[in-house]
């Protein structure tokens, strides 16, 4: 594990401290978890973008054409 020196505005530090206390974790654990969530979100976005570039739109349209037309179930309406 490595150490990182981080400068934060006092207001953000205060919010992090409050949230970490509320969650029952240390500030370090809270920040590590927040950074891990952000890294995961960016990695997921990159993965989905790469997958979409490989998409075959005509094949997708052909699959959708096989779906029967019917009214949406209650609660599924637009």
UniProtKB/TrEMBL annotation:
It holds the Pfam family HicB. GO terms for biological process: regulation of DNA-templated transcription. SUPFAM superfamilies: Ribbon-helix-helix. This is HicB family protein. It comes from Crenothrix polyspora.
């Amino acid at each position: 594990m490595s150490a990182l020196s981080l400068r934060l505005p006092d207001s953000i530090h205060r919010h992090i401290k409050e949230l970490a206390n509320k969650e029952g974790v240390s500030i370090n654990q809270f920040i590590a978890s927040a950074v891990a969530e952000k890294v995961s979100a960016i990695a997921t976005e990159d993965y989905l973008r790469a997958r979409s570039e490989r998409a075959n739109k005509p094949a997708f349209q052909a699959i959708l054409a096989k779906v029967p037309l019917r009214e949406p179930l209650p609660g599924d309406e637009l």
